[in-house]
Amino acid sequence: MAANLRRRAEAALSALGLTGPITNEQIKGILEHDRGRPIVVRTAPAKVFTNAACGAWLEAETIDVILVPDDADPMLQAHTVRHEYGHMILRHQGGASSIVGAETLRELVRLTMPDLDPERVVAMLGRASFTGPSERDAEMIASLLTLRSVRAADVLENAETESLRRALGGSGV
To answer: Which superkingdom heads the taxonomic lineage of this protein's source (predicted)?
Structure first.
């Protein structure tokens, strides 16, 4: 079962060209192009996340917003963003109604996206929620992207080291 899950996740990543070392910013750019709208990542007060959720994706016609807890470790925030990217890659519908209550969601929209109508967002997000297999699938995507982001950091570090070595006339660093 896990091998099949990984194969499906790898195929979804390959379909978007997400194959080698890659950063969250590069993933964001590819998804913005694929989805035809900007993706905004924002922090939100940790108290709005319930049911052990670490983040939320709000999908609208003209924008995607990913929310992560403001008190989370930066590495957890980055992984959470990749998890939400996983939902986008797998073509799930974005919604936070199962993560936060309607009143909390209204407050969250007012705090983080003052240009959007909170009532419209709450109504839109009430249309669907995902648990179980979709969360597992998105987490597999996030894990694979995390491995690729670590490789990207290694590639960047090696390139920077090599650039520094050349700038110093080939001496060891």
So the answer is: Bacteria
Q: Nearest 5°: phi and psi at 41?
A: -110, 125
Would 104 be classed as within a structural domain?
yes
Q: Does residue 167 lie in a domain region?
A: no
Number of domains in the chain: 1
97: domain range?
34-133
Residues contacting residue 43 through CB under 8 Å, at least 6 positions apart: 67, 68, 69, 70, 77
- How far apart are alpha carbons 136 and 15 in whole angstroms? 19
Residues 15-34 pLDDT 10s: 988 888 888 999 999 999 99
The total of other beta-carbon atoms located within 10 Å of residue 22's CB is 19
The verdict on residue 146 lying in a domain is no
Query: How high is the pLDDT of residue 130?
Result: 42
CA distance 32 to 37: 5
pLDDT by residue (tens digit) across 73-113? 888 899 999 999 999 999 887 665 444 556 666 777 777 77
Of 126, 131, 106, whose CA–CA distance to 51 is shortest? 131
Q: Looking at the DSSP assignment, which residues form a beta bridge with residue 65?
A: 40, 58
